[in-house]
Amino acid sequence: MTQDSLHIQKISPLLSWPSASVDTGRKRMTDLFSEQGPDYLPIVFGADVPEKAAYPNFNRRELFYEIDKMACEQFWGALSAVRSGSDIQPAIRPQTGTGTLASLFGLDQDILPDTLPWLQKHLTREQVKKLQPPERVDDLGLMPTIRKIFEFYQTHLPNLPTFIADTQGPFDLAHLIYGDQIFYEMHDDPGLVHHLMEVATQAYILGTECMKRMSGEAHDRAYHWSLYLSASGVRACEDTTTLLSPAGVDEFAIPYLRQALAHFGGGWVHYCGRNDRLMDALLTEVPECKYLNLGNPDKHDMTEVIRRVHRAGKVLYSGPIRTKGQSMEDHFRSALEPLNGDRRGLIFQANLTGEETREPQKAMDLWHRLQDRH
Fold first, then answer.
1. Going by C-beta distance under 8 Å and a sequence separation of 6 or more, which residues neighbour residue 229?
2. Whole-angstrom Cα distance, residue 109 to residue 116?
3. Which residues pair with 227 in a beta bridge?
4. Cα separation, 279 vs 218, whole angstroms
5. What is the pLDDT of residues 217-231, one digit of tens each?
6. Is the Cα torsion angle 26, 29, 30, 36 positive or negative in sign?
7. Cβ–Cβ < 8 Å for 73, 12
8. CATH code (residue 76)
9. Are 208 and 153 contained in the same domain?
10. What does the pLDDT look like over 95-143, one tens digit per residue?
């Protein structure tokens, strides 16, 4: 990676900092777990950034290999967040792909110009059998690259919070290491899968700790894109877990996820798709799961999900899908009504039109006014 800072130096003056709305949003997210609760439920959305059209766009390969260009991509998202006046938290990270922790085992991603980095090769069965957790990860795989990225961010964007690169979660990481063969081995050789899960869980913990040291992020709290996680030190992705049977979820995913999250005082769990057993377990049997994010709210009854997450004492970062032609007010009401006036359990990921993002204060006023009516 090169470290030329030409592009970021041109655009960084566009960011006005500090931001009162960001500070307020951070407090609201923190107060979701406080005794008194927040003054208003947090809502997150971005704002229009018309200046971006005057600057070059970079392809995915450029973004991966050139730190300056990666910083620019991250910067535009942070600028949109600050300008929105919503509760969204601007934060930037090394964007090194889902295979970041798999690289600790010598696995390389394909870096293509038109799509995100993707892991195509995996370890063999014999390699997995011999696999041992790394004792020290600082100089393995992508970690030296990530250190350089954090140093660049801290030099050129020192006011913006940073957070760690994509870690996935223990089962997702195991799937990346071994590939689809893992699904056969769960039946043919479950002991091998448990061995792999132990290695993947330890790699998740060590890799996360290493990146937190680089970024200066606290052990038991974190930023992740739009969020400040006051009750969570990590994020775990459980996409692959949605493909498992209820028995597979219970045996091969949940015990290792709990171990990983517990090490950091709790975590935020994301998954795309739908798996009812996974959701049941996260809400009732995984106290370490403090936040839940659904990548496909369209596959769920979101009214019921909001109620269940609230009853479980956790926080949902998501919200009902905005249907075609639905007004902003009705969209907001669909998120608030399941809570019956309580101001806990939700960070609302609102879906605004382009026109609405150009007048973000109207959206904030409406969101607060609807809560004041309860």
1. 29, 221, 222, 223, 235, 268, 290, 291
2. 10
3. 224
4. 28
5. 999 999 999 999 999
6. positive
7. no
8. 3.20.20.210
9. yes
10. 999 999 999 999 999 999 999 999 999 999 999 999 998 889 999 999 9
